């Protein structure tokens, strides 16, 4: 393996304009321009507005990332950008910026699958903390747009074990928060209130839990159950009543996520579970995961809080790892490609016919 490359990475798949400089798995700078205030009034992300704000934020964010890392473009070994999945207009802003930098510098440009970036987030090091060595694991990827379980058997060898059939868990949080008048994004607010409430106050459903071999998710029925509860009983009139609804809703989500993630570990014989994506910052999820996984002898790992949400450091780390393993520069904008399509069949990987996961 060649020395760790230094990579400048750009992430703009949804409503965060981000740029980072990484050297291997070590983060030298990470800048994120959030659009939360832009979209809060609408209770969710408005794609057209997201694209416009990426356009105005992208250049300053790149400049700040280079300044924070104290490097110039001439000191980089490569460039990276999220090329999918995500909002088409938002992705294109980042991709075109990255392509412009590649044309101006002659540096290789690597397109990175957004969820592969999240896979790398728990390995990141920064400050005085060294990166963690990449190792096989089961990943529960849970965010506003994705909820899926992936067996990461090796670098570039990703097998989808289960995914949501309707809403992502993070989307369910945001929509329930909107029903309760808690604003956007709703996940952090519900998490805080849930800590004050009774998780058994309401018997909200846990969908698709009876078959132990079923690793898929469904959260639409849970949202409907919350809505029906509010229609029958009205909006909660006290903080305690609101906390009970939040606690009961979160308990239902967390139980399903943790149960199925641990079932997945058992099904593939893996004793390491990573939980990544924006919802991995949820305190209730982290606490339940640590307790239940320990009883089964499963090690767990979650990213630092600053790397749970969308960021460019994870994109750069994935690209640096690919570069060190012989990946061919390639960008293919695709708004819906799944993670298990990345690997031996992906033209951005140099495949090794003797190893099913591609070059190592």
The amount of beta strand, in percent, is 15-25%
Number of domains: 2
Distance between the termini: 8 Å
Strand order of the largest sheet: 3-2-1-4-5
What general form does the structure show?
Answer: globular
Helix content: 25-40%
Q: Can you give a write-up of this model?
A:
Strand 6 and strand 7 form a beta hairpin. This protein is α/β, with parallel strands linked by helices. It has 2 domains: 156 residues, 2-Layer Sandwich (Nucleotidyltransferase, domain 5); 167 residues, Nucleotidyltransferase, domain 5, CATH 3.30.420. The longest helix has 30 residues. It is globular. Helix 5 packs parallel to helix 7 and helix 8 packs across helix 9. The strands form 2 sheets. Strands 3-2-1-4-5 form a 5-stranded mixed beta sheet, sandwiched between helices. Strands 8-7-6-9-10 form a 5-stranded mixed beta sheet, sandwiched between helices. It starts with 5 loop residues before the first strand and ends in a 36-residue tail after the last helix.
Give a summary of the structure in a few sentences.
The chain has 360 residues and is α/β, with parallel strands linked by helices.
């Amino acid at each position: 393996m060649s020395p760790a490359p230094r990579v400048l990475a750009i992430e703009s798949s949804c409503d965060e304009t981000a740029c980072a400089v990484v050297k291997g798995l070590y983060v030298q700078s990470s800048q994120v321009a959030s659009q939360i205030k832009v979209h809060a009034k609408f209770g969710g992300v408005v794609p057209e507005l997201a694209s416009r704000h990426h356009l105005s934020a992208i250049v300053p964010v790149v400049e700040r990332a280079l300044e924070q890392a104290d490097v110039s473009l001439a000191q980089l070994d490569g460039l990276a950008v999220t090329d999918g999945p995500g909002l088409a207009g938002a992705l294109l802003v980042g991709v075109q910026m990255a392509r412009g930098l590649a044309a101006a510098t002659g540096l290789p440009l690597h397109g990175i699958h957004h969820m592969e970036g999240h896979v790398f987030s728990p390995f990141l090091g920064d400050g005085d903390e060294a990166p963690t060595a990449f190792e096989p694991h089961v990943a529960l990827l849970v965010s506003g747009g994705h909820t899926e379980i992936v067996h990461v058997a090796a670098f570039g060898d990703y097998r989808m074990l289960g995914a949501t059939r309707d809403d992502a868990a993070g989307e369910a949080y945001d929509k329930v928060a909107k029903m309760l008048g808690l604003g956007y994004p709703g996940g952090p607010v519900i998490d805080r209130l849930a800590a004050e409430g009774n998780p058994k106050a309401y018997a909200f459903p846990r969908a698709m839990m009876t078959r132990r071999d079923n690793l898929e998710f469904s959260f639409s029925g849970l949202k409907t159950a919350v809505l029906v509860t509010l229609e029958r009983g009205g909006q909660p009139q006290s903080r305690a009543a609101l906390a009970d609804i939040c606690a009961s809703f979160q308990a239902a989500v967390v139980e399903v996520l943790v149960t199925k993630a641990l079932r997945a570990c058992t099904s593939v014989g893996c004793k390491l579970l990573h939980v990544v994506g924006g919802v991995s910052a949820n305190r209730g999820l982290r606490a339940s995961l640590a307790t239940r996984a320990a009883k089964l002898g499963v090690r767990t790992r979650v990213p630092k809080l600053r790397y749970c949400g969308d960021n460019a450091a994870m994109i750069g780390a994935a690209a640096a790892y690919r570069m060190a393993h012989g990946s061919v520069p390639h960008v293919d904008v695709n708004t819906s490609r799944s993670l298990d399509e990345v690997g031996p069949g992906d033209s951005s990987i140099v495949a090794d016919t003797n190893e099913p996961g591609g070059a190592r």
